[in-house]
Amino acid sequence: MPGTIVESIYGKLRGQQQGNVIVWKGIPYAKPPTGNRRFRAPQPPEPWSEVREALLFGPSAIQASNGIMEFLENRADNTSEDCLYLNVWSPAADNHRRPVMVWIHGGAFTTGAGSSKTYDGSSFATEGDVVVVTFNYRLGALGFLHLGGIGGADFSGSCNCGILDQLAALQWVQDNIEKFGGDPDRVTVFGESAGAMSIGVLMAIPKAKGLFQQAILQSGAAANVLSSSIAEKVSSRLLAALNIGHGEVDKIREIPAQQLVDTAALLPAMSLVPVIEGDLLPVHPEQALAKGIAKDMPVLIGTNKDEYRLFSFFDPRWKQGDQEEIISIFEHTFGLNWLGISQYLLNGEELNQNIYDKLMTMSLFTFPALELAELQAKQGAPVWMYRFDWETPVFGGELKACHSLELPFVWNTLSKEGTERLTGNSEERHKLAEEIHHSWIRFARSGNPNAPKLPEWRAYNLEHRPVMIFNRENVLVHDPNSEERKKWKNLMVHLEKSR
């Protein structure tokens, strides 16, 4: 069909007209990271001479199955080590130079895919006249295993292959998006969970300068990285499980990818994440932000009120209610910090799931988001904060405003099959989705999320700390996490002093 063929710098691509939107799927943005290219930085794809059909999503990154991701309708059915593909939604392949929104999917750096039906860019393209890009990147051991210290120069940078993939995808956008009707000088990266944590890293990477101008971080910030020494301990543990000695690291390139993924799945959660190492990420992201590396970048950042409930709800240990086991959960999770946390934050009340959820939500999501907002606000950067408080009615309301619940609202994909398993099917959902969706569009277009149907949304500042609360009625509240924020900040100081 005329208008669906675009000439990228690597060759022609044929997309598909879907209503008022053209979609191109499964576009390679790098060579397959297989064989000798495993654990190496991505390389530009081979050009092609014929028109390439871009009608089907490329394979997702190879990954272990995950029940929670399946519940969220983020199944990765077609997986492969050959996964570096992206997708584009655009109103038209013309010269209108529309704002571009590039999505980085979540999944704890070990699961997920840019092809999830929740991440359908059609509504952004039609409602906002923007171009949307989603992509896959290497996950788990293949994306974040630190082998440089053990395997030498041949494995240098292996610990950040997933981040290097993200940079390669963003570079592809710079080189090609104008042909798809987008403006390479107006790129907003947005992502959720590990996707938002990736953005916190990208904001701090000197090499990422100029690849995007704005950022939206949903339930993730700039705190989730490992030091090189801790990452090396993780890799030593995995190599031992694979029966690979330190002098024979090369063997890891020959192990079947699925075996590598399945073995790595036995590691504790969040063991394979970006690593502070080398020229790519020389210092902790928060340290780079404190020095002003992203001081001119508009940022929209927020969390969900009950983030961790998604994970604890499906953990059978809480259903049994055995106090001894509950205490052991707290002790195992917080380790050496548990004594300080229990003495400082708790008033001797009996430990339960609600307390655990609050502590985990604060430590993993709310506090890091507040830290990033503070760091940016201190630089005079434009920052807007939100909190998603709408509670889903499913499972008798037990999931509350859990992690990932905002996704179909942001994308305006509530009508996608299976979404009601997470959100229920009440009519009120659509009003909230329209309000959030249009706020994200406004931010992509102008760097400011204020939209007609919202109360005035003032930029975040350290005096009043305004936060937009998204719920059945949206309200701007000053410092809604005041008590937890102060307690947690004091606790962090206390723990640092005790080390």
From TrEMBL:
Domain Carboxylesterase type B, chain residue ranges per copy: 4-478
Organism domain of life: Bacteria
Keywords for this protein: Hydrolase
Gene3D superfamilies for the chain: alpha/beta hydrolase (3.40.50.1820)
UniProt-listed Enzyme Commission number(s): 3.1.1.-
EC main group: hydrolase
Membership in a protein family: Belongs to the type-B carboxylesterase/lipase family.
Protein name: Carboxylic ester hydrolase
Organism: Planococcus notacanthi
Source lineage: Bacteria, Bacillati, Bacillota, Bacilli, Bacillales
